[in-house]
Amino acid sequence: TEPAPETAVPQTGDPNLTLLHRIGTVDPASLDDYRAHGGYTALRRAFDLGPAAVIREVTDAGLVGRGGAAFPTGRKWQATAAQPDHPHYLVCNADESEPGTFKDRVLMEGDPYALIEAMTIAAYATGAHQGHLYLRGEYPRALARLTHAVEQARTRGLLGDDVLGQGYAFDIEIRRGAGAYICGEETALFNSIEGRRGEPRSKPPFPVEKGLFGKPTVENNVETLVNVLPILTMGAEAYAAIGTPTSTGPKLFCVSGTVARPGVYELPFGATLGELLALAGVRDNLRAVLLGGAAGGFVRPDELDIPLTFEGTREAGTTLGSGVVMAFDDTVPLPRLLLRIAEFFRDESCGQCVPCRVGTVRQEEALHRIVDRTGAGAAGDITLLREVGRAMRDASICGLGQTAWNAVESAIDRLGAYE
Ligand code: NAD
Ligand code: SF4
Prior knowledge:
Layout: H1 31-36, H2 41-49, H3 51-61, H4 73-81, E1 88-94, H5 103-110, H6 112-126, E2 128-135, H7 140-155, E3 171-176, H8 186-193, E4 217-221, H9 222-234, H10 236-240, E5 250-257, E6 263-268, H11 273-280, E7 286-291, E8 297-299, H12 310-315, E9 324-329, H13 334-348, H14 354-372, H15 378-395, H16 399-403, H17 406-413
Parallel strand pairs: 1-2, 1-4, 2-3, 5-9
Antiparallel strand pairs: 5-6, 7-8, 7-9
Helix pairs in contact: 2-6, 2-9, 3-4, 3-6, 5-6, 5-7, 6-9, 13-14, 14-15
This protein binds nicotinamide-adenine-dinucleotide (NAD) and iron/sulfur cluster.
């Protein structure tokens, strides 16, 4: 695949930023430049603290997963570290595939050593000696830069048998996905690495207990891992002072759609949706904003005061998910957009369970009928959509089926999509 153009990154390189500050200023091919920009200070501090204290810092910082589910990272690390079964594995989920999500790509392309350093810290804290980085297949530039960075880190003693001369062994294998959205689900991802079909497993058992190759595994998203660096360099207390008491730290938002300056924005949790859209240059004729991606939900232009926190979006009846903020002005045909989302889920359903395999097809058919009839007689199909949606949400094995109706439901209920 030909590399896509560099993603627009309006805010990078600002020294006041926590996660994007090196991007655009550091040479992603140079380990020396990474070190000159503060690289490997966090790993040194981790070795000084020891594994248990590193987990305590991450817990005290209040870090929660940035892939979309917001599970407490310290709890995950603690649970993995405590498992008597060995070996332990670390898996970095870099299969960023949620439509409208491109923040991990910016981190990996612009600051690849940061991810390698963060993975080393996570592995050290949880007792793992082998890391797997599962990278989205459509990210060839990230693959090239990370491959080079892993090789350089090995050559310079920052990966391998004796990391930083501390007697700790750790190495990273990069695995490339093959384009299936479902392989971003952590257990489908494990199956993919193991050479099996990319189908989700039932949980529990959770990966912290039985993950990759049936062994205790800590699985974290790219952005989650990169947050560990400022936690260790500035300390848990200073980190937790960023954002709100319940959503701590900085967050990357992927702004796209009908805005003047699409790209990745870093803001502390708690900024409002309106403030973010003002940075990105929203237009006057805004019709709707999709939060959280295809699995998320729409909000109206009169709801822009929603605080961008996990709890704030939940209270507003939507989700922050992986940080997708997609704006649509009134020139975008909403019914066609919903149909496109439904096609996506039908296409990406792995087919393992009936509610999702059949439900995503029925959903798409009903939306097709509504579009073909330009909305006339939609009431019967909307009733059907609600029934199918409820069945998918209640009975699907994994998050794909459980959320495949979210966007359509919110478009009907909040936007009056077919009125
Ligand atoms: P989940 O809530 O089932 O799990 C979240 C994480 O917490 C997992 O790692 C899970 O193993 C762990 N966990 C949950 N309960 C646990 C327990 N009791 N003990 C130990 N660990 C536990 O969510 P999920 O299905 O893994 O992810 C769903 C999210 O993924 C959605 O919010 C969606 O926004 C997001 N998503 C992101 C992308 C992307 O490209 N970033 C793509 C698709 C979906
Ligand atoms: Fe596969 Fe869909 Fe079932 Fe998930 S919900 S296991 S994607 S069929």
